[in-house]
Amino acid sequence: MGRAVTVATCALNQWALDFQGNLERIVRSIDIAKSRGARYRLGPELEICGYGCSDHYYESDTLLHSFQVLAKLLESPATQDIICDVGMPVLHRNVRYNCRVIFLNKKILLIRPKISLANAGNYRELRWFTPWNKARHVEEYFLPRIIQEVTGQETVPFGDAVLATKDTCLGAEICEELWAPNSPHIEMGLDGVEIITNSSGSHHVLRKAHTRVDLVNSATAKNGGIYILANQKGCDGDRLYYDGCAMISMNGETVAQGSQFSLDDVEVLVATLDLEDVRSYRAEISSRNLAASKVKPYPRVKVNFALSCSDDVAVPTCMPVQWRHHSPEEEISLGPACWLWDYLRRSRQAGFLLPLSGGIDSSATACIVYSMCHQVCLAVKNGNADVLADVRKIVNDETYVPEDPREFCKRIFTTCYMASENSSRDTCNRAKLLAEQIGSYHINLNIDAAVKAIVGIFSMVTGRTPCFSVYGGSSRENLALQNVQARIRMVLAYLFAQLTLWVRGMPGGLLVLGSANVDESLRGYLTKYDCSSADINPIGGISKTDLKNFIQYCIENFQLTALRSIMSAPPTAELEPLVDGHVAQTDEADMGMTYAELSIYGKLRKIAKAGPYSMFCKLINMWKEICTPREVASKVKHFFRMYSMNRHKMTTLTPSYHAENYSPDDNRFDLRPFLYNTSWSWQFRCIDKEVSAL
């Protein structure tokens, strides 16, 4: 009868400018889709060149190589007898667009440019692309010769149109258009488009996945229809982790769900759905039908092809599934672990080195690496040949098979406890025990000789010897002596990262991991160029509160009992002298605020767009049960003084996994000055005026 259509979507781990690898992953996804009976295949946004090309989009090479890959796809036997929908940049009349190129049997059917560009937070699409502002308008696009030679076409339709096959009608959205208040799927659905597709480049943020799923399901709940979403997956070269979650929805319910985190480079979802279910669902929504009678029609590109078979009465169709969301602790365990794996294998390094202090942050970082080792062993056990090949390259052993996460951890992960005279025996023991439980290659060393040498040079030159405040020194002396220890640890971390494997008779070098959390970075509670300075930081976008919950998750799920004492110990930098052999310095006392308060400040500053005055106005209500207005004013002023005084540190912040929308990352996400008037005289005067009135 021609009513059961079989469609495929995918999540691909594409890599910016890796044209060969991207081509191979696209072809593999098409092969899988065809082998499972699909007649239409959707891929992620800009999948040919990789989403994260950034300013490489300006280069003509990026356009050229994208068309070269497109030519290979058009010629490939894999793309015959299936409608293929791929993403790439296209230059039309000297304007660059983010496009979908839809083709069938060596003929391009339509080039559909993106209408709503993502230009907030981590996204800068308006820097490289122009939105297509001609609604329901189609122009002729003159194909480059490299494509003409394959297709025999001189021009193809370019613009805002839909495809009319023998049995149904398909319309495309691209990523941000789903999130826009006037999403194209609304009027497409009213115009009789039964299958809406969305190719995305959507990154992971803690607690965000349900929002994307709800948007897709609500799109078809109100208007009926089938919605197919593809997404990029993995680290394609920067701070973001694209979290897959490819899905297919019909009439408000999910019928196919892809994984959010996995080490599979290619994941394909296929669903067979009954078009009559869409038609009957729509038929009884009178408000939809009244609106449909007035909608302006879309240009239709006729396609002599069907997504269904004529004899499909007995073909089974897919039933709704219940979407399973990960808890935030699971997201921390899986997302940064997958990001680290991509970074490790693509950087061609031999592993990681982590300065392990015995505190929550570095311990959480170690647990993420251990989780990565778990994911690798599981993937190999499940037959993932790509992961096994990458493992063998990393450990330089063509016969190696990782089976035990602890044993694999020993090969690729080095932890290092760098003691000083200010370090306690407790933190040393905690670090050692955790290293034993996760299996890392652990080093204990003492930095006192290096500290004394550095301070000795200063004393020899100046004739003055600085002292800690507990011995009568000034605050400047006290801070300088703390910073010397911290910076020496950074230098030693890089030295051991370069030479530890040489000492062990193994090839390669190690990537240095940082472990400053998002709250410390926001407050600037770190030494510039200390162990927060590293190659990458898997927890730099995660709050202290979430990290504590993650540590508890690791105790329960990985049986890492060493974490119990780490959880119960107060966070401390251990840079000031001990008192009676015990730590006297604590992070929260040093900062003048709690980590819980810092998270609130961070969310108000970035997400709520609050300056000092607005933050004060919000907090006097939020904290009215625990603080007077004068106390709130004091806290807000202290935060903004410290934040602005230390903002310069964000310019050198280690590239961190982006997990929170209040990240202070200066590179792309949180664009602010780094030289402030730290007195905030006008703003604080407004606060004082309100305090006086209250």
Describe this structure in words.
- This protein has 24 helices and 20 strands.
- α23 runs antiparallel to α24.
- Strands 1, 2, 3, 4, 5, 8, 9, 10, 11, 12, 13, 14, 15 and 16 form a 14-stranded mixed β-sheet that branches. A four-stranded parallel β-sheet has the order 19-18-17-20, with helices on both faces. Strands 6-7 form a two-stranded antiparallel ribbon.
- With 694 residues, it is of the alpha/beta class.
- The relative contact order is 0.09.
- The mean pLDDT is 94.
- The chain has three domains: 299 residues, Carbon-nitrogen hydrolase (Nitrilase/N-carbamoyl-D-aminoacid amidohydrolase), CATH 3.60.110; 215 residues, 3-Layer(aba) Sandwich (Rossmann fold), CATH 3.40.50.620; 102 residues.
- The protein is globular and about 90 Å long.
